[in-house]
Amino acid sequence: xILGAGAIAPDFDLPDQFGAAQRLGARRGLRGVVxxxxxxxxxxxxxxxxxxxxxxxxxxxxxxxxxxxxxxxxKYALRAWAEAExxxxxxxxxFWPHGAVAxxxxxxxxxxxxxxxxxxxxxxxxxxxxxxxxxxxxARQMAAYREALAALRPDDLGAxx
Length: 161
What we know:
27% of the residues lie in helices and 24% in strands. It is α/β, with parallel strands linked by helices.
């Protein structure tokens, strides 16, 4: 079961596709975060979702939230994936310990060895405001992301109401 609204988001410090540290705790009090787990780089459904998120990156920015796409792939594979697909979203590697962050959020599939398609909208106070998950092979829809962003109230993010 994935963590739901009201739970405190487990802190993390993951390398992005360039090796830079992406820390949830460093954003506390400043910005919200939408943490999107995908099973694998280069897979068909994940690649479709990656393009959809990249095409709508302005939606997250306008909401004052950082978008982080997490996978159990190594940072090198994530960089190759981003470059091959020509996208600019931030990808973070939950490679080692394998899937530790996905596990902390209840989003790791132990039998398959990868993250499930789970999404968490985390407020600047570190509380999960919204979470949702889709079935294996089922892409998330932008409407679900819009609802998650709506759960991050503008006054929480320092944006005008």
